[in-house]
Amino acid sequence: MTAPLDIRPARSRVNLQHLGSQAVNWLKGLIAPAVAILIFLAIWQLLTMGPDANLPTPIRTVSDTWELIINPFFNYGGTDKGLFWQVFTSLQRVALGFTLAAIVGIALGILVGTSSLMYSALDPLFQILRTVPPLAWLPISLAAFQQANPSAIFVIFITAIWPIIINTTEGVRQIPQDYNNVARVLRLSKPEYFFKILFPATVPYIFTGLRIGIGLSWLAIVAAEMLIGGVGIGFFIWDAWNSSRISDIIIAIIYVGIVGLLLDRLIVFVGGLVLPEEQKQ
Amino acid sequence: MQVLNSPTQATSGYATQEPFLVIDNLSKVYPTATGDFVVLDGISLAVNEGEFVCVIGHSGCGKSTLLDMVAGFRQPTEGEVRLQTQTISEPGPDRMVVFQNYSLLPWLTAYENIYLGVNSVFPNKPEAAKKHIVMEHLEMVGLADVANKKPSALSGGMKQRVCIARALALRPKVLILDEPFGALDPITREELQEELLKIWQDHQITVLMITHDIDEALFLSDRVVMMTNGPAAKIGEVMQVPFARPRDRARMMEDPKFYELRNEALDFLYHRYAHDDT
Q: What is the pTM of this model?
């Protein structure tokens, strides 16, 4: 990064022009995806127009679920809640499980990365465990916790933790030898080495791990909730399937997709705030 | 008779027997699947206090391995390095290293990079004294005004100046430089060579420097140590550089002795120990 040269002339005039051209560019960028969505909707409409189609047309989907779309905040008690509350409950589980995974994962990753004994002992184990599908953990965690909610949170935890551990470990192991030599010649104390060299050098890798982890968490929660029941976007989908409300499923899927994207962007955004300018990848 | 009893005399008396920095029959062997790989074979060199010694040789001849062992990053297979009769077993701030690729921490400012070392080496100094040391050394290399800039905002020459300032701020006994100006453009390189000479003269510090630039070695050093090609590199020849100090580059270049020495070094590197790239 070099200091940006301020070559903008008179401010007011250019700012307006600048804003205008930015808006135009932004709109131009929207054209292609908008066209793609329209084509997708048209194909969907064509495929589901027949009298014996199993899935609703897009128009039918919207009219069926209009109530859900315009009022995401209703709460009639039990599991009969608006989509906002369903998503919110799922997000709470993800937040808890993911936070735990981040704390434990980063700590373990640093431990394993700094000790070659730990690395050779634990890395093969991590490589095996990370390939286990999230739902395979659910029976075990139900057996251990005996309750639905902690089990779901544990599934999130155990799903998200592997990429966080593995990326953090990799980050620690990739610290340039030069930085370690500097630490050795200066005889930096352990805490000083940790805060001034190890941690800053590892942060970009940690954020890569967190980003993969949050994506996997969101994948896992929908599947886990289908099995454990209660409030949550996963069980909402399963419930809709059992009551043959196919349009509700489609709307819920769109919600899941948008929330997943927002979670990913959130991690990127936080990473952008935390990462020093020099280290952005 | 009186002086013999005083403790200071006793130490310097000992120092006359043993030079400041002694590289004593140093060998480095890496065991490999196909047998031992000898990098350095029996290197012996004595460096006096305040001397400026350049080590020159082709890449791959083990100069960096030699410096790593003086710095304490690697342990010799045989022999040892002694600084003031103490055997070197680990890196320490008494032998500060200026690395080839700057090795400044990119997330710290120039000031913070130097402060990190000062704070670690002089933990008991009051805060104001530590700040003073950092700023004093930034000023020494003419970079006080970019104290709060991060390395990415500095040019290569500025980064290397910060590295030199960081090294000297810790009052090392020996300054070790590993091809410090290799990555710089020729003009900046000459500027930094002159700055380094001035700093060396002001600080009376012992310098051990690796370079592959013959002119640089002749301009800077008291002695040029020429190494033979690896594997099993040895010291081929040690050249005394007789030019008077303080040195002036233009005047040195006019001296016929300069060309004599330069040709001798060139002959050593490109005829007697020509690098075999194939």
A: 0.80
